[in-house]
Design goal:
Layout (H helix, E strand, L loop, with lengths): L1 H13 L2 H22 L11 E6 L2 H5 L1 H9 L12 E6 L2 H10 L4 E5 L3 E4 L5 H26 L4 H9 L17 H15 L2 H11 L5 H8 L4 H29 L9 H25 L4 H18 L5 H10 L3 H4 L1 H14 L4 H25 L8
Parallel strand pairs: 1-2, 1-3
Antiparallel strand pairs: 3-4
């Protein structure tokens, strides 16, 4: 009887076009829209060497310290990656001004009694040039003041400045780089899992004699109601699980969303999310005595609210919500689902992942326990 009803429920749910649309087609369509909207937002900005000019004045020719400093960050001497500046010398102020006007350089420096920076517009390159000149003026002023007060320190300062001391070492992280765009896709999966509530609600209504004719016939038949209900829920969970796997496959192979390479844990997180979604819908169906329209409205409202707090619409909402009310990280099933995937992507340990999955299975058991308590007390005076 279990497998017979399981097979029947599979066929019945698969043929329900409305259910399939909301549990599979709608998340895929929304994911495609995300792909179109975010396609150019996650690209890495490329730094281009800044074209800068220097007027070859007598003061500049005499300032060997500035020449050395400028050479250290220019193309002629910087071999460790892209240089900061590409320096072009101009014999006169007029030549440098013309080059700036023609757009050949971002700005130029002229030195007389001090350094002067000339630019035509504001921007990233111009800001970097200003920061560089300000830093050099401050450093040279500090050195001059120290030497004026203590002339014997000149050689010591020269030795310090000539040393190339690196206080920060660059190492490769064992984790992936944070990516805010992934928050939207993981929240989308969470929403799709919670939309499994429609399947759970339908299974409850199917065995309720006051909701559907099928429920009335089931109550009149000499059958084990619990076994029929359990087989229907298993069929609904399987359909929802397949839908989520199709969605993840579409996101991974078509939209190229990074889920990491831990397939087993991805399948586990997907299954936990599906169980939570279906059980949540079953609980709503059991607790509410209203019609299908009201129950559907409750499910959509709560699912979208939980998905919103998980970062579906605005990624920053997820972090602000948890920051303001930390308990939301553990009582919002959608957040737990999305965070399970993010934990797999970002962390190289599994503590956070298993905490999320544990809470999801815990919620599933709690929801099913509530369903059991409610439905075992339902009696009908007449059918």
């Amino acid at each position: 009887m279990f497998w017979h009803n399981f097979s029947y429920s599979l066929k019945s749910n698969v043929r329900d076009k409305q259910l399939i649309f909301w549990t599979l087609a709608f998340p895929v369509i929304l994911g495609s829209l995300f792909g179109l909207a975010f396609s150019n937002l996650s690209g890495t900005d490329v730094f281009d060497t800044i074209q800068i000019g220097v007027v070859n004045t007598q003061a500049y020719q005499a300032d060997t310290a500035f020449q050395t400093t400028l050479a250290a960050v220019s193309k002629s001497d910087n071999t460790a990656g892209d240089p900061l500046f590409a320096v072009t010398q101009y014999a006169s102020l007029e030549e440098a001004t013309k080059a700036l006007t023609d757009g050949n350089i971002s700005g130029y420096i002229m030195e007389d009694s001090t350094l002067h920076l000339y630019i035509r517009s504001s921007g990233l390159n111009q800001t970097i040039m200003k920061e560089f000149t300000d830093w050099y003026l401050q450093a040279s002023s500090a050195v001059s003041s120290i030497v004026a007060q203590n002339p014997s320190s000149a050689s010591e300062i020269s030795g310090i400045l000539s040393k190339n001391i690196t206080y920060i070492s660059e190492t490769k992280s064992n984790t992936n780089a944070p990516n805010d765009m992934l928050t939207y896709y993981y929240a989308l999966i969470a929403m799709a899992c919670m939309y499994g509530s429609f399947l759970g609600m339908k299974q409850v209504m199917t065995v309720q004699a006051n909701q559907t004719p099928t429920g009335a016939r089931i109550h009149l038949a000499p059958l084990n109601k619990l076994k029929i209900f359990a087989s229907s829920l298993c069929a609904a969970t399987l359909i929802q699980y397949i839908s989520i796997l199709i969605l993840i496959g579409y996101l991974a192979f078509v939209l190229k969303i990074d889920f990491g390479n831990q397939l087993g844990y991805i399948l586990l997180a997907s299954f936990a999310g599906c169980c939570t979604g279906v059980s949540f819908g079953a609980m709503v169906g059991a607790l509410s005595k209203k019609g299908e329209g009201v129950k559907t409205g409750i499910i959509i409202s709560l699912s979208m609210l939980m998905s919103f707090l998980a970062g579906l619409m605005v990624a920053q909402v997820k972090y602000e919500a948890v920051k303001s009310l930390p308990i939301l990280a553990y009582i919002n099933p959608a957040n737990l689902i999305a965070d399970s995937f993010y934990a797999l992507y970002y962390y190289n340990t599994y503590g956070r992942f298993f905490t999320n999955v544990g809470f999801l299975f815990g919620f599933s058991l709690l929801f099913y326990f509530i369903v059991f308590l409610v439905m075992r007390r339902q009696n009908y005076a007449s059918l």
